[in-house]
Amino acid sequence: MKQLIVFDFDWSFVDQDTDRWVFEVLSTELRRKLQERKSSQNTGIQCTPDVVDQTMYDLFKAGFTREDVSGALRILPFHPAMKRAVLSLKERSPETTFICLSNSNEIYIGTILAKHGLTDLFDVIITNPARWDDQHPDLIHVGRRLPASSPPHGCSVGCLANMCKGDELDAYLAAHGGRDSFKRIAYVGDGANDFCPLLRMRSGDVAYVRKGFELAEKIVHERTREDGKKAGLKVDVKFWEQAWEIDE
Ligand SMILES: [Mg+2]
Ligand SMILES: [Zn+2]
Predict the structure, then answer these.
(1) How far apart are CA 89 and CA 132, in angstroms?
(2) Where Mg(2+) is bound, by residue (predicted)?
(3) 17-21, 34-38, 225-229, 231-235: which is most confident
């Protein structure tokens, strides 16, 4: 069956938040600083890649190297059952396309996939741009998927300023034969910004929503709202906790 599997990355494909993890491994002080910067941006225009970029600069100033950052990413928790799940599905169903839709960044995701031999898994990785500095090889720059200079995406259902995941999913589908060229879409996610793409999916598509995270709360709230303003979620929802359930 020609189907599309969409993976969020942090806490969905892997068992951690990539941005936080790098600092948790390398520097408690900077992990705290990241948190403070995130909370101080709580103004409706919060933009994760901006605060990560600033804090990665501090990490560089503190003397940490590219190898330190890459090493931290290589030990980020990734469940063997998730690897088994995707590789066995790919083998059973070569018609399945995997894409990654993440608010992490190209370098973090690329490093982790390479470590686990999964570089070729995703047809495309839709995420924030990142690059190592030309002059300072230990300094990483993280940018926004939707540059600050672009018109805002206008989404109001939980996406951050730098990326509307629903728009990104629609754009991918439009560029790959349209929604009807896939019999089914399955989406694995956990975050508040994974709600938007679920609204673009249909009955018969499946959302695998991780228990205990923001997306699960949002969906439960959505289903119990009685104010007549239901967002109109049509996708079938299945809750999961651990990667082995995704394999099932
Ligand atoms: Mg996530
Ligand atoms: Zn959106």
Answers:
(1) 34
(2) 8, 10, 190
(3) 17-21
